[in-house]
Design goal:
Layout: E1 3-7, H1 12-24, E2 29-32, H2 43-48, E3 56-59, E4 62-65, H3 67-77, H4 88-121, H5 129-150, H6 163-170, H7 186-195, H8 199-205, H9 208-213
Parallel strand pairs: 1-2
Antiparallel strand pairs: 1-3, 3-4
Bound molecules: glutathione.
Length: 214
């Protein structure tokens, strides 16, 4: 099997990549990159991703990092699934939401995950309230935009399931643990609860617990 995905499934960025691979039925080898054991800092892994972060993908001589680049590659290998439209305008809309996820949505949520989950897990002390407040402001601003956009829509782009849905929804897998304030965002809850019913979503959720126990 030439396709390998290096990931730590509890992380939303890893969840995103595994979710898309599972939804597409991609033939891949799962390689645990155990962040709790510093696997991202080994020489072998650094040769794969000099940023010392997961996820990463290998396909023959291709070494690819950045979760959105990885899911774009996976979708392009399975065009029949339609997760990345071939029409220029439709594709630009999907890609626009993927960039929004990388630059706006993910950083706000990741800051809350860091303060409220990761620090505790690694013995890094209590959440810094000033950082939490800053992240909450960013989160609420982004959530208002997404919530308004989803009104009357089942999917983010083009009224069909696409990489935009997977990229943006994956960040919500830690919503409970990071206490994301979703109560006021009923459209986001409706849309994400629907995605969580996908067989691939459930299969990817099932990959999370064993990784923590490993
Ligand atoms: N923009 C990157 C972010 C990757 C990233 O920050 N991964 C984190 C975990 S969610 C990581 O591997 N951190 C390990 C470390 O910083 O030591 C992506 O979407 O792939």
């Amino acid at each position: 099997m030439s396709l390998k995905i290096h990931a730590f499934p509890p992380s939303p960025r890893a969840f995103k990549v595994l979710l898309v691979a599972n939804h597409l039925g991609s033939d891949y080898e799962f390689c645990l990159c155990d962040l709790t054991k510093g696997a991202q800092k080994t020489d072998d892994y650094t040769a794969l991703n000099p940023n010392q972060k997961m996820p990463a993908l290998e396909d023959g001589d291709l070494k690819l990092w950045e979760s959105n680049a990885i899911i774009q590659y996976l979708a392009a290998k399975s065009p029949e699934a339609g997760l990345l439209p071939s029409d220029e305008k439709a594709r630009a809309d999907v890609v626009r939401w993927m960039f929004w996820e990388s630059t706006t949505w993910d950083p706000a949520i990741a800051a809350l995950v860091f303060e409220r989950v990761v620090k505790g897990f690694f013995g890094g002390g209590p959440p810094d309230q000033a950082e939490v407040e800053k992240a909450l402001q960013k989160f609420n601003r982004a959530a208002e935009i997404l919530n308004a956009h989803l009104k009357g829509r089942d999917y983010i782009s083009g009224n069909r399931l696409s990489l935009a849905d997977f990229a943006v929804a994956a960040d919500l897998t830690m919503a409970e643990a990071a206490q994301l304030p979703l109560a006021d965002y009923s459209e986001i809850r409706r849309w994400s609860e629907r995605l969580a019913e996908l067989p691939a979503w459930k299969a990817t959720r099932a990959m999370q617990a064993p990784a923590v126990a490993a």
